[in-house]
């Protein structure tokens, strides 16, 4: 049995600006090019000659190179999480987050190699012990005390990012500790300015490093701070009503100003902060659970932690702050033909939003709910079917893990305004 949705008024949808496919390739090439530039600057400043000389000078030269690579990757890591719109649309935040993690660990090990090689190189040149040389560098070299504090902050971020450690931390605590990475980057800059042999060794080095630091700082200020401030000032989202959909399941409806100008698409998510008391500074990612119509937004939250449990107690009139929208699970990538949407648990909420936006014909959309399967992943022949199309979270089975359904729906014709 299948169910057919009756046509309803279609929402006005702001067409998303497509990101050219070549841009994604160009971004990857550009990231690799920065490492080549850093290496070329090191070679131009006598790095190869110092390595050829051998001994303590070669160890120090390798230490300088690993330090330059670590600094470059650290700045690229900042750019990956700067919420740059064109990067978000090209790659999606989940992929950027993976690259951010890999880049961060690589940068950390290069930084560790930099410290070890520089200390042993200087100790060999001065004919002193490594620990004594390290102590002397920290207390007598300009900027090194700040660099040590920055290194400690980065070590804390890396340790808490290891999967085993992260499982033991609340998300809010981990996120707060993770912000210390910005402090680590900032504290390393004076050290590079005052004692970095390659930072100001030539006009080309000076231009490159100041440019990449300026780009990173500008991206963070613009997209992590500026854009959210302007967007929240313009739209002024407030909670209009809170609906209990089921045990531990709550939908929040929000209204605001000029929501038809908010570039949100079905399938995307925002980082949400509700000004309802202590703890409002901690953002939580919630997907839109209804197609944005230009006059209200809806999110549906499952009680799974401290932040999500507070959603049920929100009162109408509570202000909401947002960052986003993020995500590439949108109708933009659909090129026509049948549509199959598969979700589990609270993960079905963005799919509910997509039902009202995807351009598919009558009987061409299928929404299987999770249920028992036979070996080989095939659905059982006598699967219980959904008798009515789910218009909202309350329409879903109370225990979807024991049911399997297929929905063939007919949405309203999509119009673009």
Ends: how far apart?
A: 35 Å
In DSSP terms, counting alpha (H) and pi (I) runs of 4 or more, how many helices? 13
Spatial ordering of strands, largest sheet? 2-3-6
The CATH topology annotation of the domain at 21-231 reads as: Four Helix Bundle (Hemerythrin (Met), subunit A)
Give average pLDDT, whole number.
76
Strand/helix succession: EHHHHHHHHHHHEEEEEHEEHEE
Beta-strand portion reads 5-15%
Main sheet makeup: 3 strands, antiparallel
**Uncertain spans:** 1-17, 370-390, 395-417
CATH architecture type of the domain at 21-231: Up-down Bundle
Estimated structural class: mainly alpha
Transmembrane segments: 22-42, 62-82, 102-124, 144-165, 177-195, 207-226
Region (Disordered): 387-417
Subcellular location: Membrane
Cofactor: FAD
Written overview of the protein:
It comes from Actinoplanes sichuanensis. It holds the Pfam family Ferric_reduct. It contains 13 helices and ten strands. The strands form four sheets. It has a three-stranded antiparallel beta sheet, with no helix packed on it. A three-stranded antiparallel beta sheet has the order 5-4-7. Helix 1 runs antiparallel to helix 3 and helix 2 runs antiparallel to helix 3. The chain has a domain of 211 residues: Four Helix Bundle (Hemerythrin (Met), subunit A) (Up-down Bundle). With 417 residues, it is mainly α. The radius of gyration is 26 Å and the shape is elongated.
């Amino acid at each position: 049995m299948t169910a057919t949705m009756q046509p309803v008024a279609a929402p006005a949808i702001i067409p998303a600006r497509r990101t050219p496919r070549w841009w994604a390739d160009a971004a990857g090439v550009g990231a690799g090019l920065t490492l080549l530039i850093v290496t070329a600057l090191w070679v131009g400043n006598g790095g190869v000659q110092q390595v050829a000389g051998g001994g303590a000078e070669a160890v120090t030269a390798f230490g300088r190179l690993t330090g330059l690579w670590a600094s470059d990757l650290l700045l690229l890591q900042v750019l990956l999480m700067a919420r740059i719109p064109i990067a978000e649309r090209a790659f999606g935040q989940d992929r950027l987050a993976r690259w951010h993690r890999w880049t961060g660990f690589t940068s950390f090990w290069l930084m560790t190699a930099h410290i070890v090689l520089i200390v042993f190189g200087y100790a060999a040149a001065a004919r002193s012990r490594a620990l004594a040389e390290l102590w002397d560098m920290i207390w007598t070299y300009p900027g090194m005390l700040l660099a040590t504090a920055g290194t400690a902050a980065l070590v804390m971020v890396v340790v808490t990012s290891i999967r085993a450690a992260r499982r033991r931390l609340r998300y809010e605590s981990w996120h707060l500790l993770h912000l210390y990475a910005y402090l680590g980057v900032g504290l390393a800059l004076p050290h590079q300015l005052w004692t970095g042999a390659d930072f100001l060794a030539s006009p080309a080095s000076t231009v490159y490093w100041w440019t990449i630091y300026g780009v990173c700082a500008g991206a963070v200020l613009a997209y992590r701070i500026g854009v959210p401030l302007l967007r929240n000032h313009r739209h002024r989202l407030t909670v209009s009503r809170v609906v209990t959909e089921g045990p531990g399941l709550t939908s929040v409806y929000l209204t605001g100003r000029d929501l038809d100008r908010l570039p949100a698409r079905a399938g995307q998510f925002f980082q949400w902060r509700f000004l309802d008391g202590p703890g409002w500074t901690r953002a939580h990612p919630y997907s839109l659970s209804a197609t944005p119509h230009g006059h209200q937004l809806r999110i549906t939250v499952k009680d799974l932690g401290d932040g999500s449990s507070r959603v049920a107690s929100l009162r109408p009139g509570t202000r909401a702050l947002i960052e986003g929208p993020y995500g590439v699970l949108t109708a933009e990538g659909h090129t026509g033909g049948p549509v199959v949407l598969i979700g589990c648990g609270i993960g079905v909420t963005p799919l509910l939003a997509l039902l009202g936006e995807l351009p598919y014909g009558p009987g061409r959309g299928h929404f299987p709910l999770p249920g028992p399967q036979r070996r080989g992943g095939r659905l059982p022949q006598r699967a219980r079917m959904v008798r009515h199309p789910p218009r909202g979270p309350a329409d879903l089975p109370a225990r979807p893990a024991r049911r399997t359904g297929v929905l063939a729906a007919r949405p309203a014709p999509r119009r673009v305004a």
